[in-house]
Design a protein that fits this description.
Elements: E1 2-3, E2 7-10, H1 17-25, H2 39-56, E3 60-65, E4 71-79, E5 90-96, H3 105-119, E6 125-131, H4 135-143, E7 147-148, E8 154-155, E9 167-174
Antiparallel strand pairs: 1-2, 2-3, 3-4, 4-5, 6-9, 7-9, 8-9
Length: 176
């Protein structure tokens, strides 16, 4: 568990599944992904996230607001899949419910995740990437003092050729 002034990053709970599914079914939240997710797909992703945490000691943690316990989404670190052109390595990621946008939660949680990666995991580099049109996530990357890496940009292999979301922009952070 990681705590920030306003947030708790923690393992996944059964109670997270319903708001997680609602977040993934929201077309506005998922506008930078090829499709929204069904409840079954959302539950499966939460299970994968929790398994990664249990196996590696880190992962895409559920994010809870400290003052009221509200589930906000996820933020954390994930081992890159072999199919990712940036592999091997670790990526930072986040996805928050619309009601949590514009309050600095993504930056606060991601900063804590990066700190965990550098101090507790002794990672040398952490990358973040997103679809080229996803300017809000790229703004978070900038606020995290990540460096834009156009030399590492790639077409995401899980997105169909010709799709507007296939080109991905890469940012990276190095251990202090």
């Amino acid at each position: 568990m990681i705590e920030t002034p306003r947030l708790i990053l923690r393992g996944w709970r059964e109670a997270d599944l319903e708001p997680w599914a609602a977040l993934n079914a929201d077309p506005e939240v998922m506008r930078h992904f090829p499709t929204t997710y069904s409840r079954v797909e959302s539950d499966a992703m939460a299970a994968v996230n929790q398994t990664h945490i249990e196996q590696h000691g880190f992962g895409l943690w559920a994010v809870e607001r400290r003052d009221d316990g509200a589930f906000l989404g996820f933020t954390g670190l994930m081992t890159l899949r072999e199919s990712n052109p940036l592999a091997p390595g670790v990526e930072a990621g986040w996805r928050l419910a619309r009601h949590a946008w514009g309050q600095g939660y993504a930056t606060e949680a991601a900063r804590a995740a990066l700190d965990f990666g550098f101090t507790r995991l002794a990672l040398a580099t952490i990358v973040a990437f997103t679809a080229a049109p996803n300017l809000p996530s790229q703004a978070v990357m900038g606020r995290l003092a990540m460096i834009r890496r156009p030399d590492l940009d790639f077409d995401h292999p899980a997105v169909p050729e010709g799709h507007v979301l296939r080109p991905h922009r890469v940012w990276s952070a190095a251990a202090p």
